[in-house]
TrEMBL record:
Pfam families: Rce1-like. It comes from Loktanella gaetbuli. This is CPBP family intramembrane metalloprotease. The keyword S-adenosyl-L-methionine does not apply. GO terms for molecular function: metallopeptidase activity. The chain crosses the membrane at residues 23-44, 64-81, 101-121, 133-152, 173-189, 195-214, 265-293. InterPro entries: Rce1/LyrA-like_dom (IPR003675).
Length: 299
C-alpha cells in the first residue's frame, strides 16, 4: 500500500489494524458499539427519572459521562474481534499525549478570540447568566465528562474506523470521507427540525474531515481529540439555549424558543439568508480550528 505526503504517518498508524482486518469484523464492531450507544438513554432516564429536569448541571454531566459505556464496549469488541487493545488505536502514547495537549491549547486560544466576536452578534438577545459560583463548581466535572465523550467518538471514528479502513485502502474516499459522513449522520437528530438536523450533520461531517486529516498527518489520535475537546468545551460551557438538554454547563443562556411550528420542519429553511450565513460561519470556524492545530503541531 502506497502512502503519499502529507499522510506518510498513516502507514504506521494503520499497521496494527492490518491483521484480522476484514470488512465483516468492522461491521460487527460498529453494530456492537451502536447497541451500547442505544442503551445509554435508557440508563440515563432510569437514573434521573422520567420527569427530571434535563437542563441541570448534573443531568448534563451524566449525559456525557455515560459515554464510558460505549467506550468500554468498543475496546472489548476490538479486543475480541481484532485481537488488539486500546493503545493500538491511539498511536505512540507519549506522542499522542503531546499532540492532545498542543492541539487543545492551540484551538482553545483561537476560540478565546473567536467566541467573543461571535457573541457580539447576540448582544440584542436577552441572554441570561447562570450563577457563576454554580458554574465554577460544575466546570471541572463537566470538562472531564466532555473529554470522555469526545475521546469516545474519536476512538470510534478515527482511532478504530479510520484506522481499519486505512488498512484496507489508501484512498481518502475510504478512510477519511466514509467515517466522517458516518460521524455526520450520527448528529442528524441533534436538531429540532429537519433543516437543523441537516446543518448539524453537515457541520459534524466537516469536523470529522478535519479530525481525520490531523490523525493522518500526525499518526496519532491526539490532535483529533484535542481539537474535538476544545470545540465541545467552548460549545457547551459558554452559551446554550435555556431549558434544553445538555445546557446545564453553559454560563450564558438564550431564552427558550419553545416548540417550533410545523412549517419550520421543511428543508426550505436551509435557503434563508440567516441559515446561509450560519453555514459560512460554521465552515470558517472548523477551518480556523483545523489550521490552528496544524500550525501548532507543524504538520
Amino acid at each position: 500500500m502506497i502512502w503519499h505526503r502529507p499522510y506518510l504517518a498513516m502507514a504506521a498508524f494503520t499497521a496494527p489494524a492490518r491483521p484480522a482486518g476484514s470488512l465483516l469484523r468492522i461491521i460487527a464492531v460498529l453494530i456492537i458499539f451502536e447497541i451500547a450507544f442505544a442503551i445509554m438513554p435508557h440508563i440515563y432516564f432510569s437514573l434521573l427519572g422520567p420527569d427530571a429536569d434535563l437542563s441541570t448541571p448534573a443531568a448534563t454531566v451524566l449525559d456525557f459521562g455515560l459515554f464510558i459505556l460505549p467506550a468500554a464496549t468498543l475496546i472489548l469488541a476490538v479486543r475480541l474481534l481484532h485481537q488488539r487493545g486500546l493503545a493500538s488505536m491511539i498511536g505512540p502514547r507519549k506522542l499522542a499525549v503531546r499532540h492532545t495537549v498542543v492541539a487543545t491549547l492551540a484551538v482553545s486560544l483561537v476560540l478565546l478570540v473567536q467566541e467573543p466576536a461571535l457573541l457580539w452578534f447576540d448582544l440584542s438577545e436577552d441572554l441570561g447568566l447562570r450563577n457563576p459560583a454554580l458554574w465554577l463548581v460544575w466546570l471541572l466535572p463537566g470538562i472531564v465528562a466532555i473529554t470522555l465523550q469526545c475521546a469516545t467518538e474519536e476512538l470510534l471514528y478515527r482511532g478504530y474506523l479510520q484506522q481499519q479502513l486505512g488498512a484496507l485502502s489508501s484512498s481518502r474516499w475510504v478512510w477519511m470521507v466514509l467515517p466522517s459522513v458516518y460521524f455526520g449522520f450520527g448528529h442528524l437528530y441533534n436538531g429540532d427540525t429537519v433543516a437543523a438536523g441537516v446543518l448539524w450533520a453537515g457541520w459534524a461531517t466537516l469536523l470529522g474531515l478535519a479530525c481525520a486529516d490531523l490523525t493522518a498527518r500526525t499518526g496519532t489520535l491526539g490532535a483529533a481529540v484535542g481539537l474535538h475537546v476544545a470545540n465541545n468545551i467552548f460549545a457547551t460551557v459558554i452559551i446554550a439555549e435555556a431549558q434544553t438538554p445538555s445546557s446545564g454547563l453553559a454560563l450564558l443562556l438564550y431564552p427558550y424558543a419553545g416548540d417550533l411550528p410545523p412549517d419550520d420542519f421543511g428543508l426550505i429553511a436551509l435557503l434563508t439568508p440567516f441559515t446561509l450565513f450560519d453555514i459560512v460561519v460554521s465552515i470558517m470556524g472548523v477551518l480556523v480550528m483545523w489550521l490552528a492545530a496544524r500550525v501548532a503541531l507543524r504538520v
